[in-house]
Amino acid sequence: MPSLNAPNEPKIRRIFLEALEKPTPKERDAYLDVACHGDVALRTRLGVLLGNHREDHFLENPAVEVEQADPNRMAAETPGDLIGRYQILEKIGEGGCGVVYMAEQAEPVRRRVALKVIKLGMDTKSVIARFEAERQALAMMDHPNIAKIYDAGATEAPRLATGLPAPQILRQTGDPAHEPPPSPCPLPPLGAGGEGGRRPGEGGAPVHGVTARTLSSVDSFPSSDAGKGQGEGSRSLDTSHPPLSTHYGRPYFVMELVRGVRITDYCDRNNLSTRERLALFTQVCHAIQHAHQKGIIHRDIKPSNILVTLHDGPAAAGVPKVIDFGIAKATSDQRLTDKTLFTAFEQFIGTPAYMSPEQAGLSPAGAADIDTRSDIYSLGVLLYELLTGRTPFDGKELLASGVDEMRRTIREKEPVRPSTKLTQELVATKRAPSSPAAGGDGRLPAATSAAQAGGEESHSVVRATPLARSSRGEREDPRRLNQLQHLIPLIRGDLDWIVMKCLEKDRARRYETANGLASDIQRHLNNEAVLARPPSSCYRFQKLLRRNKVMAGAVVLVLTAILVGTVISIGQALRARTELRRALAAEAQALTAEAKALTSEANAQAALHFIQDEVLSQASPGSQPDRDLKVRTLLDRIAERLDRAAGPPPLVEASIRQTVGSIYTELGDYAKAIQHFEQALRLQEQHLGESHPDTLRSLHGLSMALWWSGGSAQAEPLTRRGLDASRRVLGEKDPLTLQFMQARAFTMLYSGAVPWPELELLFLQTLALHRKVLGPDHPGTLRLIHIFSMGYHRNWQEVKAEPLLVDALDRSRRVLGENHPQTLALMHMLAITYTQLNQLEKAEPLEFRSVELRRSILGEEHFITLVSVLSLARIYLKQQQFEKAGPLTDQALDVCRRLPIENSPFLASNLSALGWEYLEQGHVAKAETLCELALQTVRRKPDASALSNPRIMTELGAVRLAQRNYVEAESLLREASPLVEKFWPDAAYRFYVMSLLGASLSGQKQYADAEPLLLQGCQGLQQRQASIPSGFRPTRRITESLERLVQLYDAWGQPAQAADWRQKLAKFEQGAKTSDGGSIPGVRVTVEPRNK
Amino acid sequence: MSDVTTTPDRAQPGDPKSAEELLPLVYQELRNLAAAKMARETPGQTLQPTALVHEAWLRLAGNQGSAFANRAHFFAAAAEAMRRILIERARRRQVLEKGGFAEREDLSESKIVCLAPTDELLAVNDGLDQLAAEDPAAADLVKLRYFVGLSMAQAAEAMGLPLRSAERLWAFARAWLRDSVSQ
Questions:
Q1: Which CATH number fits domain A260-412: 3.20.20.100, 1.20.1440.20, 1.25.40.10, 1.10.510.10?
Q2: Which residue of chain B has the CA closest to A738?
Q3: Chain A residues close to B104, C-beta within 8 Å
Q4: Which listed residue, A77, A102, A164, A709, has the most CB atoms within 10 A of its CB?
Q5: C-alpha A636: how far from its chain's center?
Q6: A277-332 residue pLDDT tens
């Protein structure tokens, strides 16, 4: 039983609702003052809430799909009604978008027009505004295949209010005396609020209650303190709200009246052959081209927007007319989020089948990112449908799959080629039980005979019936079988390629212009090579052959020559045939390249393995310390040779550069690696296309080299692009796809854009996939674990990394060998992990070995070697073996000052970490040197590794604190704080930084500001004590945070508080005596600075 | 003066179970039901949360109806369950989306079409927690309307409220949530 008593009702709601009942703002204010009883907070809160009360769509649309109860609620205009200056004559169409009427315009010219009234749910005001913005451009379009668009406006629709429950709510509660005056409220006539060029007096007298008017803006709900209740105050409150946008009426568009049928229907009804369909389609392309040249994008190309006018007599060719220009932009641009996108589909587009990936992927921010190539995509879908009777993706299925899935399909799923679609249908048709009693031939004799008599040129497509029919269990039309068998070879090849080029997900790969598309169709019709086709030599030969039968013999010759690999001699052999020579040479070259490309990947892999396994790992310490120089010399020499003028064929060059780039990456020479990968990528994109696996391999190499060199931000889009392409071309589980997945995870790790818990999930998923597809021993899997553990390290979860690393290191040693770069990387990571876990006895031998090996393989001054050196120094420092730590540190510092270390973000964080350890040991000067150097690096390249920056700032901040340089400490810590908070909202480190910041304020005598920071910092650290890695010395962190509080209250002159915290400190130290092996008794730098 | 009710009696004498406690039961029931429905429907079919919740009530009212103090009690739990289903899924998708990873989802509840942009969904969700602390009835109404898709009349009926009370409650909830969602 519902309880209707007021007692449980929250006070704020009670007052809110009561206030709403007050007829005027003045009364409402008076009521609020009394009801709030001087409670200022409550009064303010209510002011805000009442200000928030207005009628609009907010929350009115459920998050979930709801069955439409009654879609036909919309009021319809009837013949005779006047909309604006247009008199309705008859309804000529109704679609998802709205109703189309034939109407008559009296002034300034008497003419018949088509008037399209958009259905409910639009923000009329902005629709009109957007239309006005494009009006001039629209007026400039003048093309026989484009229906002119004349005007737009808004109906007034008081009657529509009946369909809308929301605004009625408060009226029901109101006093009858406050009933709103009958709508429509008087508003200026059309044109009064718009530009001056409009004709006067267009508003006209209402006819059947339907008048037109402009859309003046209405003030929003007067806030309670505005107190200007005059004009509106006499009405009840709800009517003073801006009404639902639909109260302004619905937008309508006036355009040239086109009497025709949609293009697909026209083709089918008239049994047009493929050739005729293409001719018709070409006209549409030219119309779209015209619009594009005027700067107008249609945005909603689909059969129902391309009508073919009907002429009497079968001989006359129909003229296609593109209608609705400008409407899609005006109506669908608003807040293209999922919801409106969905609404847009249902109401305005009817089907998402024609929507380009960039339209489907629209984010609210990306609304401006639609260009003419979106139309090219839609044209491609239209062509697809004209050829096969079906769209690439089924519109109904798309809608049924839900928004997310729909967007994913449009953006990622590769449609099957038109000929494949037909083949699928053919298979399905054949499989379907055909009944002799179907009588298909009997019922459709004309069509059958046409198909037979027309031969190759008469292959009409019967639209979208066969599959639908067979799925409904009806009998198959044998006529269709016949058609399909004719159609498939016609469409396979050129037309497939042309359509697929339009449907490229990456719009840069579509036709540049609609004319380009039309020209390619023309080329196909002329038996010329189409641009859409990838430059496959086999295909070009086919084309050549078709043009010139004499070539047949030459082809065999060339092919043989290719196999032997002597291209030039072939050119010579054919010299006699001058008219063919040039063409053939080009073909031959393409063929050679392709033949080589087939083996290029194997070559590259073999070369890489050779150098990695045979050269790099042969270098054992002591035997040949300069081995790495030789490898590099070799590489440099290869690079030099490639740069010389007469290099190898482009794809071979690309393959070599790819290999060289990979080795440079392994050697840590990222600048050179990037250079080679970029050149390889350029060549491969040019000759193989963007989605070729070889191209993608270079892309991957490039993105990884960029990432390692601190170019995370540059690498990120490349990894995304690569992942999309690889997934599309090679599939979800291809090793290359996995590599890109990895690369994506890497770039995200250091950008800090994704919170770690989510990223960890991604890593785990990716790792599972790697193990499953590549196996646990695969170098790719091992590298993933390496980077994954870096993520754990950056987030103080070394505990989780340790078992992963132990296992991976074991495998890497076994599979790749002790000296392999990957093994060394894992060795170093495990050493770091043990250091953080304070298991120094395990960390030391590992890092010692990694330093030894890296020195011998990469050289003393290589920054990867330096990373290991710095880490080893830190271990010694923690072990208080200063005599070992010192020289290592000095040596590393020396090198770092000479190297461009900003190119290695990892070096900076290692420098800083060592500096912080020096600080912990009381060596403030050394700490300062190291931390300053690290911060300089970060300042030079702040994007390199966003995740490292706040720690480096904090570490130098801690040094400054120890130096009693409170001002600079504060500034550094303030800079670090928001980042720390963002990256590690719940980590103990956040509270460590908080406490440090508090101390910096306390040092500047800003006690009141310091107090909350110190308190919260101390509390946060204590609560998270268990999660702090022992290498970070949890006991000491808490102790110092308590000490800072004691100091604060001492300095602030609050002895009682100080004593209290002293007691807490003593109690904590008592309890912590045993634990925290990392703490060093007697060394307290944070409190007792030695320098300055 | 006010006729807007508060939360329908959640704790009836002799029935200590709160909506919160019943949540797992309802959650599971909704998911089972979704799976069962999907097994029968053709692929591509979507599920209507409104229908789902009503059907769940019919089933539970027969079997375990006694666990619920009343119909309103059940609907509060069901709306909460639906909200969690949607939010969990939105969060999961968001994580995967960020990584550029396609989601492989076989759960039947994925057939519930979520029209709201993820940002809005999560913002409403966050705002609701705060609203629930201040005015649980208002929050329940939002859940029913927003996450289950009930019309005002249906929601009023589900909560056992007169239509007019529900409308007033709705006006309050919208004003309350507007700030947190539109930020």
A1: 1.10.510.10
A2: B101
A3: none
A4: A709
A5: 38
A6: 999 999 999 999 998 888 888 888 888 889 898 665 454 578 899 988 777 666 65
